[in-house]
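User: What would this chain look like folded?
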Amino acid sequence: MFGQEPWALLTRNAYDYPIREFADQEVKFFFAQVENDLGRYNVAPPFGDYIELGPDPLGVIDRFMLANPERPAKFKFTADIALDKSAGSITEDGFIHTINFDSYEQWLVDRVHKDFRRMVKQARRRGVNITKHSDLESVRKFWRMHVDLRVQKFAEIPQPETFFFELFEQFLEKGQGAIYFARDESGATIGGVLVIMDGPKAFYKFNASRYEFLKLRPNNLLIDFIVSDLSKKGFESLDLGFTGVGPEYSGLRKFKENAGGLSVPRYTWKSEKFHKLDTAVLTDTNAKVAKLLEAQPTYEELNMFAEIHYKKFI
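Assistant: Here's the prediction, encoded as structure tokens.
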């Protein structure tokens, strides 16, 4: 999904980076031709979690570089085989977890850990319920909740609102995505997930949990509802997205595993010239982010800042 044209168009339309398609034997993907304060370089996928490069991913990358030698490049991809990381150009930086299911009932009985099932029941007993949306106003609401999560939990800026409007136009408006909101017994929104759908697979792309309501277990009930909803529509799997390898990600990895997620490694490959880009720009930008967040900015101020600076984090 992240290597296909609809996803690449998000980057072109939101950040004005040109996109190109590369074809190698049976592998095809779109990449972004980036030009910003760091320099000029190629990225695949642009702002996505990973692409699939077939049984010989490093061979595909080698041929890509032969066809595009003028720019440094960065790839994020998954592989089913062990890769030689001794060259220093490739790192195993995390995992992609995927829930596979023949039916909702089969997933719940055979794949889900008993602790996860218990927390789903807790959420229901505590009055949590799930609603599904695909309208633009729900996208606006989700973006603000996502901003709160990025700022309060991670001290990071979010993607600008423009990017989420592009998500709406490329996917949700076409029936290829949805927002699921978790609500407490009063109807207040306490969590949310933005899901993108592609063929038989769906992608859990963005989360917007409210930290103070996590004790109600909204995220467990969200996963339960989403798998049930997808199963009814004939989907076969739910990609839970990227999780890092560090100890700070241990809780998230356990959550995904308890939900029945099976993991494969994700790799990042960078060309030799990529390491020579002016990464001091990112250091300076992160300092500006920290200063901005200290001032407790409004949503509008955060969005204006992200419109200017987030494109550097591609």
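Residues 136-154 form the longest helix (19 residues). If you want, I can go into more detail on any region.
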